[in-house]
Q: What sequence folds into this?
């Protein structure tokens, strides 16, 4: 895993950030294990991975506080999601009208 910049992280969606966070935590675990067994060759990598994890948490916190905007889905995916919601609401309305008609 390469050193990530905050600008690169801000361009990623929440799912991608969480995936990178999981990968970084796993790498940190492996590096700590190697350090404990004396097999670690690059001790500087421990510091770099910890900083990457901190950067990811910082971007997630910025989004949670509303400091930066969310970059979750591209415009095409968002438009498709709206169409699905509209279709679902139309079917609910149709079901309600049928129920109302059967009661009368």
A:
């Amino acid at each position: 895993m390469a050193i990530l910049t905050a600008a690169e992280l801000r361009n990623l969606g929440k799912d991608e950030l969480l995936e990178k966070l999981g990968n970084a935590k796993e790498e940190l675990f492996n590096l700590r294990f190697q350090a404990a067994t004396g097999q670690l060759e690059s001790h500087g990598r421990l510091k770099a991975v910890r900083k990457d994890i901190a950067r990811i948490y910082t971007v997630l916190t910025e989004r949670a506080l509303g400091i930066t905007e969310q970059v979750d889905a591209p415009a095409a995916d968002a438009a498709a999601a709206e169409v699905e919601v509209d279709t679902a609401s139309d079917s609910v309305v149709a079901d309600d009208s049928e129920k109302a008609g059967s009661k009368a």
Summary: The two ends are 66 Å apart (CA to CA). Confidence is low (pLDDT under 50) at residues 75-95. DSSP finds four helices and no strands in the chain.
